[in-house]
Amino acid sequence: MEANENSRRLMYGCDGVTIENGHFKVHAVSDQFKVATPYIRRDFYKITLFRGISRLHYADQGILIDRPALTFSNPLVPYSWEPVSESWTGYYCQFTEDFVHIRDRGRLSLQDSPLFKIGGSPVCFLSEEQYATVEGLFKKMIEEEATDYIHKYDVIGSYVNLIIHEALRMQPATSASKQSSAAVRITMSFMELLEKQFPINSQEQTLALKTAGDYAKHLAIHVNHLNHAVRDVTGKATTVHIRERIIAEAKLLLRNTDWSIADIAYSLGFDYPAYFNNFFKKQTGMTPRSAKLV
Fold it and tell me: Where is the HTH araC/xylS-type domain (predicted)?
């Protein structure tokens, strides 16, 4: 099982880098941004500064990025990049919740920040002046990480906070409040709860919440209320979100572990492997065994 858990940890990394608890990495953008990345959840926060044209698929949004921008990703929300242009320049940093935090009348979780929270806007478009300001902070982080200073990550954490606050300063005043409706709050709670079910890291782990009714009960609301809110905000039914997330996790387990199909089925909440086989084939057009060989 140790080898499987190691491969799962690496699988949720990015660009060949494993972000361990409390750690940090910063990079200049290179050729990996010219290749589409898989639509999965990562185990770290990520801030990207770049010039280049691409489409970001983040949760249920498809955002065309055609000018200088900062993007923010949350470990609870799956995302992928679809490159459009051949020319890329910029930087990105990856870090965990324990590495850095925002202070505002005490500790504030990054997931509560308008930049990272579920349902927020993950993209901040920049003017040339703003781009230069943030670029300078990324360069300072790279320079600092190369030093032997014992407290260098404290310094780097300050630079990360500066980038976050620069982005908050750039955002329109309405951006942080437009997501305040009851339907959005319910949908955000549902999406966060859904993502917390994953990843499945061991064969002993099973999904605790399987149906829309399970999620509604956990959120202490009627299932019809949950369904209406989720459909109004995302355009898709609660059951569709659950189904798509289970399929995404199933594909990752099939391709990146040596677990049997029966073990995967039980971990994903299916009482019998045959039920999982039928579900997977109906959703993907192929059997789990075929997907495992792809």
Answer: 188-294
**Helix 128-145, helix 152-170: angle, nearest 10:** 170
Ranges for all domains in the chain classified under CATH 1.10.10.60: 182-293
Q: What is the tens place of the pLDDT at every residue in 203-225?
A: 888 999 999 999 999 999 999 99
Which CATH code for domain 182-293? 1.10.10.60
Concatenated DSSP letters of 53-94: -EEEEETTEEEEE-SSEEEEE-TTS-EEEEE--S--EEEEEE
Q: What is the pLDDT of residues 56-83, one digit of tens each?
A: 877 656 788 888 999 988 776 667 777 7
Mean pLDDT across the stretch 247-268? 91
Give span(s): CATH 2.60.120.280, the chain.
Answer: 2-170
Say if pTM beats, i.e. exceeds, 0.90.
no
Which residues are within 8 A (CB) of 248 and not within 5 positions of it... i.e. 6 or more apart? 39, 40, 78
User: Is 96 in contact with 45 (CB distance < 8 Å)?
Assistant: yes
Query: What CA–CA distance (Å, rounded) separates 44 from 17?
Result: 11
Q: What is the pLDDT of residues 83-137, one digit of tens each?
A: 777 777 899 999 887 776 543 434 445 655 777 766 667 888 999 999 999 999 9
Q: How far apart are CA 153 and CA 142, in angstroms?
A: 11
